[in-house]
Amino acid sequence: QVQLEESGGGLVQPGGSLKLSCAANGFSYALGWFRQAPGKEREFVASISWKDVTNYADSVKGRFTISRGNTKNTIYLQLSSLKPEDTAIYFCAGDLSPHVDGGAAYWGQGTQVTVSS
Q: Shortest CA distance to 31 belongs to which of 78, 100, 88, 97?
């Protein structure tokens, strides 16, 4: 059982930046991020495989960057050029796969990102 814990969310002005962190206590072939805005479905944001292949949703390409820490158990999401529509709860996810219900096998508790002036 992989456990995930996110941190780094907060309030930021449009155009600003935040860096989210996710610590995992076990191995996953792929780790990544989803987000859910109020009244909307949870959506894929970004992923990174154990071989460091990355993937991004079209809505965040060029603005967000996913990366690994010094160990395979930590990933980051750098959010830049933030827009109000990026406001959501961001969830770290483990073992991302299109073959898994919901897109991932494991989920963190979420961290709130609010983009507002």
A: 97
- CA distances (Å), 91 to each of 34, 56, 73, 117, in order? 5, 15, 16, 23
User: pLDDT tens digits, residue range 76-115?
Assistant: 999 999 999 999 999 999 999 888 889 999 999 999 999 9
C-alpha closest to that of 37 among 101, 102, 113: 113
- The residue with tokens 């191995």 is 27
- The CA distances from residue 57 to 25, 47, 71, 76, in Å, are 26, 9, 25, 16
Segment 9-18, tens digit of pLDDT: 999 999 999 9
